[in-house]
Design a protein that fits this description.
Chain B: One of its GO terms (cellular component) is cytoplasm. Chain B: It holds the Pfam family WD40. Chain B: Keywords: Cytoplasm, Repeat, WD repeat. The complex is a heterodimer of chains A (about 900) and B (about 325). By secondary structure, chain A is mainly alpha-helical. Helix content of chain A is about 40%, strand content about 0%. Chain A contains 33 helices and three strands. Chain A has a two-stranded antiparallel ribbon with strand order 1-3. In chain A, helix 12 packs parallel to helix 29, helix 20 runs antiparallel to helix 30 and helix 20 runs parallel beside helix 31. Chain B has about 325 residues and is mainly β. Helices cover about 0% and strands about 50% of the residues of chain B. In chain B, the strands form seven sheets. Chain B has a four-stranded antiparallel beta sheet, with no helix packed on it. The longest helix of chain B has 4 residues. Chain B is globular. The chains are: A mainly alpha (about 900), B mainly beta (about 325). The interface between A and B is large, with 47 and 59 residues. Strand 2 of chain A pairs antiparallel with strand 17 of chain B, so a sheet runs across the interface.
Amino acid sequence: MAALHSDSEEDLVSYGTGLEPLEEGERPKKPIPLQDQTVRDEKGRYKRFHGAFSGGFSAGYFNTVGSKEGWTPSTFVSSRQNRADKSVLGPEDFMDEEDLSEFGIAPKAIVTTDDFASKTKDRIREKARQLAAATAPIPGATLLDDFITPAKLSIGFELLRKMGWKEGQGIGPRTKRRAQRQKPDPGVKIYGCALPPGGSEGSEDEDDDYLPDNVTFAPKDVTPVDFTPKTNTHGLEYKGLDPHRALFGTSAEHLNLFSGGSEGASDLLGDVGLNRGRKLGISGQAFGVGALEEEDDDIYATEILSKYDTVLKDEEPGDGLYGWTAPREYKSQKESKNDLRYIGKILDGFSLASKPLSSKKIYPPPELPRDYRPVHYFRPVVAATSENSHLLRALAESTTKAVPDPAMHSRHQLNASKRGELLGETPVQGSATSVLEFLSQKDRERIKEMKQATDLKAAQLQARSLAQNAASSRARPSMPDPGHGSWRTALAGGTATARPSTFKPFAKDPEKQKRYEEFLVQMKKGQKDALERCLDPGMTEWERGREREEFSRAAQLYMSSHSTLSSRFTHAKEEDDSDQVEVPRDQENDVSDKQSAVKMKMFGKLTRDTFEWHPSKLLCKRFNVPDPYPGSTLVGLPRVKRDKYSVFNFLTLPETEPTVQASSEKVPQPRSLDKSRKPSRWDTSPHEKKEDSISEFLSLTRSKVGPPKQESSPSVKQGEEHAPGSLSEKAADKGVTSQAEGEGSRPPMDLFKAIFASSSESSSSEEEGDSEDEQAGPEQASCTGSQGSASAETSSVAHAPESAPPEPIPAPAFPIQKMQLDEREEFGPRLPPVFCPNARQKPETPQKEKYKKSKEKHKPKKEHKRKKDKKKKHRKHKHKSKQKNKKSEKSSSPESTDSSDSQGGGEGTTDLSPQELLRR
Amino acid sequence: MAFPEPKPRAPELPQKLLKTLDCGQGAVRAVRFNVDGNYCLTCGSDKTLKLWNPLRGTLLRTYSGHGYEVLDAAGSFDNSSLCSGGGDKAVVLWDVASGQVVRKFRGHAGKVNTVQFNEEATVILSGSIDSSIRCWDCRSRRPEPVQTLDEARDGVSSVKVSDHEVLSGSVDGRVRRYDLRMGQLFSDYVGSPITCTCFSRDGQCTLVSSLDSTLRLLDKDTGELLGEYTGHKNQEYKLDCSLSERDTHVVSCSEDGKVFFWDLVEGSLALALPVGHGVVQSLAFHPNEPCLLTAMGGSVQCWREEAYEAEGAAG
């Protein structure tokens, strides 16, 4: 202790511990060496740090866990009087005394904690708190803290206050002028590190305009850096939506989500050069923005709900795109064209034009006359030779007409023969390309006459006079109008004698065609410069080049097509077998045998049919059965080709049969008849047993059905009425009769088709229809043809042959009768005689039955026909002479197509044509 | 010789009505046992197919998916799948457990009269009114049949399948047997529209019923007539016939509401079991027990022999 003078004791206040007075003669003490300067606690233990896991500064007794006596666990003592209390050990029980001291981890002394220390006046702290509040997940959570304000101020505050400091001021000497506020100026580029924030904001920012000179200012307060640890997972600088601004805030800065596009557009459109306050440089963000990049929007800061639309409005304030990202329409385009400017960067030295360019005036094309047809036809130039004098004449005639024959121009109206002509095919021998070729000159003349006749009556008269040639007129394929009649005949004659051998690709341009033909000729001669020679020297180089190309191409194309086509298409060597079907080789037939066998209960061999049957390979595999026919690819029953059994095949039969009866001239034409009839059909049904019974049945029903059926065929009657007088004078040839009969019975045929055409015989019916069309085509076409006048006339012609059958006996009625009878047999509502109709019987049943029936039918019919022949024998001698005539012609006609015309018997050839047609 | 030959038990005919199932699916077009005879299938006119335990009379599952009435059904050898055909021209392969349609074979042009699995349930054979039998492959996913047997000239009313044969009866009055092993087709003419055919259990004979109210037992190999059974009435409808479980009797439905039993060998009428007033539309004979199922109207009757004790009562 320092020595105290009594007098000065009252005056002096001494602090601290005085040094010991130096004694004389005594050396000053050596300072304590460093290693001895140890820190010891109050118990004399070294305060040494032992490491966190070995006790820290002190642990136990000299860094042991125990005490001086060692580690002794507390013993459990409990007696009746002295009950051991249940002690709940708290953390303090495991603490050292130092831990409980003032500086320990759990000080026992009562101090004012930070929470209750005065903060209200501490602006700096407050600022930090505000910052924390703003960043807090729940904004304004520190509000509560503000209400609880301990009265005590920290000593530092008090000291500072005593020194003249006022809250809100910075610490430091007062300055004369307020420091320039660090406001980033637009346009000023600031490089370098970011300035500390807060300098430009806060309560101190309210600056006065008036700054007197004699006033000094305290330095600015500094907001401490906020060291709030980041505990959330938000992005840096994330701020939650400000509820104040979001819900009640002004929507002045309405966030347009789609503003990007419109801004861009406006950029494009309008202010091109204006830099809208964008600043380059680093301005306050530490990273994420390069030095030369434009600053990103503070996406978090601008995120407030009020910036979004919450209702669908009528009109988008912006561009009206409603969120579509499609290119923006230029709305302002209409209002002022001048606003539309060059979009993009304008080069130096250029400026936008102030005046728009005057638009070009477009003149409308001249109006075409209403009846103008933009097609031009050149008449082919025909060299006047003896061969085509016909043609020339016809051309001359036709030029009087405004429209040339469309058949020349539309390929759809060409028939096969004409196409062949065009392609330069030689007419095929043996098959008539046109019925006209069978006509003699005389007949053609007559046809022409008839065509020119317009009056129905006159036509009828003519028909009467022409009745013997009627067949030829029936066979006309189409009815050209009178003006073209000669044209056509001329053409026909031309084709008969000479055919154009090449196709004319440039027929429209005769000059060109001529050049082309020349070129061809030269080519054939083998001249290399054929092209150059034949080209028009007056043409330009370009035209020449083009024509050269065309010619060579045409030569390739048409020459080769001529040859390739003719080589590709050949005539059928055998009969068209489209009317053949594959049928099982072995048929279960002989039902009658079996029926009787069944009746006699002779089951076994009599009732059994055994066929070879090929199961499919997969089926064998699935059945785990070895394939019985390992090599064969066949599946099912072996099949062979047979004639198709079509109802229509049988429908046509009566057409020929009546002819047998009507005029017994059948002998001369068995061949053609056979052709049309497909003889094999007769051979396929081998059972002859029922023939007699069926023919009997036929004759029976015939007598019954006959009279009413006759009435049902009015066309024949009509024909008779039409030309009653002609009956006697015409010895009608047989083919015509047959056709007439066929014609008379057409309607029922159509009826049958309507009924049965949908069934499986459709293909055959089609074929049948074809032949029928070819037969009846001329008449039907003419009847329903486009030319009204002609139709009347030709119908009369068509009727004329019908009137032709002159048989005195009621023969014409009989065939029809028979026909109807056959129909009945074939198609009447027939139920299987054997099979009672099952309740579950199918709709197919009658058809199938009919199918089978029809097979069985052949025999009876054949037999029937035979009988008829016998009946009519007696009439044969009458026509014998004619027969002979025809015979000779018929034998020759198939081979000689064109030349046969010259032979006198025109009837014969015309008669043949339908059969020829049928055959094809 | 020590033991005497066991005396063959006299065949018993199912004539005790054990159960009547009211199927509740319209008219029952067909009733079929499954392969072991524990369950049965009923084909209803309300487009459903139902699986029953006929002895207990419990409905196990209903299979719906047909577009029109179901006309025939069959179960596979392993009871895992069913097939059925109906008026919707479709042949349907069902999964028994899930009741789902596994495949639907379309191709017939008319309603499917009869369906049958082959022995290994790899092929479904369906006979249709379109006069064809189509063999549908259950293994592959081919939509078209493996083979079409279109030799029939009229609708196919019945198809039966053995391990290597397909027996079909057609309305054209022929019984056709396709022998896959021999690669031959045997066609026996019967004359009258065939309503039902079946193999005998020994595989030596075929039983044929036709619309002339006659059943004929034909030798399979030669086609000879072994027996003729008459007395019932079958002139209109497609009725089933069958052989009893040990080929001792011939069983047939009749349009007069009875089921007729004939002794196979003697041909004599053994029993005319009255079922009801309507037409017995279909029947099925248990594969190895004297148990008969008959379908009349909308219900199915289960018949057992007289000595039969109901399983439920026994235990």
